[in-house]
Design a protein that fits this description.
The protein is of the alpha/beta class. The chain is about 40% helix and about 15% strand. It is built from 10 helices and 12 strands.
Length: about 300
């Protein structure tokens, strides 16, 4: 690889991928709605000069989409859906018109595509897809992505779980909550958390680029863990002696005050990376304890 394009590449995952690939001497071009000195501008809705960057690029990665860390008002629901569908449509159009197309096109998706499950683990082949708002968004997103195949372009949907790292995402908030003594179970505490260390996320993306895999791939560590155990492991690593649990009604009150939704904490995401494991991918952080040891 010599050149990678990342659409929506200024967030937590995009920054991590940029650093990971640039250390290997690969040129990383990020498409961003914000005009900055180190990105290429696009608006996520229209073709423009930015499409020239696709010519001769080896890989295109799309991470664009409004954050789901918000209240699910009607306006936010529309924005969450449109920001994903429109950017994916646009990139499909851009790839279609490119003379020298990228060989691999990876599009963000989410492990939230699977239904709430506390007993059955979800693989790509045997997983049960949900039918609520969040899973509907994910299914529409993947459907739009795969609606237009291109000869010589391998497409992969990244069904990514919660990525844990110190520079952004969910982990700094989790760490703060635990340090404040609120690191007990959330809700009933038996909901599963599927997670992945940010380094393993970047390593998995690189692995998928070099592999022959296509279609949907679960990008998550092989040992999901229940919420109560997850928070206990974090508190142990931080050496926090007391852990106050939060029942559902407290979480709902807090979510309303913070402008977010309890689904982000209470949905059970019980997901296994079957295709990555079968292809021989090796995680550096299999267990959440090892992940926390590194991050803390």
């Amino acid at each position: 690889m010599k050149k990678i394009i990342i659409a929506g590449g200024t967030g937590f995952l995009g920054e991590a991928l940029k650093e990971y690939f640039e250390k290997q001497g690969i040129v990383v071009i990020r498409l961003s709605r914000k005009r900055t000195s180190d990105t290429t501008h696009w608006n996520g809705k229209e073709l423009g000069e930015w499409t020239q960057q696709l010519e001769g690029a080896d890989v295109l990665i799309n991470l664009a989409g409004k954050s789901v860390d918000c209240r699910y008002t009607e306006a936010n629901r529309k924005a969450i859906l449109s920001s994903r569908i429109e950017s994916t449509q646009l990139l499909n159009r851009a790839v279609e018109q490119a003379v020298n197309k990228p060989k691999v096109f990876l599009n963000a998706s989410t492990a939230t595509i699977y239904a709430h499950s506390e007993t059955r683990i979800n693989t790509e082949e045997g997983g049960i897809l949900g039918d609520d708002f969040s899973t509907g968004i994910a299914k529409s997103w993947e459907r739009e992505f795969f609606s237009q195949p291109f000869e010589g372009v391998r497409k992969i949907a990244l069904r990514t779980s919660i990525a844990l790292g110190t520079e952004g995402g969910a982990f700094p908030k989790m760490k703060m909550i635990a340090k404040l003594g609120m690191g007990g179970k959330q809700g009933r505490g038996n909901q599963f958390i599927s997670w992945i260390h940010i380094h393993d996320f970047c390593k998995a993306v690189a692995f998928l680029i070099q592999s022959e895999l296509s279609g949907a791939v679960n990008v998550t560590a092989p040992f999901p863990i229940q919420n109560e155990e997850f928070m206990a492991a974090l508190c142990d690593q931080l050496k926090v002696p007391f852990r106050i649990s939060q029942p559902k009604w407290v979480l709902e009150l807090g979510a309303a005050m913070m402008g977010t939704e309890t689904e982000l904490l209470l949905k059970s995401r019980y997901v296994y990376p079957q295709r990555l494991m079968d292809a021989g991918f090796e995680f550096e952080y299999n267990k959440v304890k090892d992940c926390f040891t590194d991050l803390v």
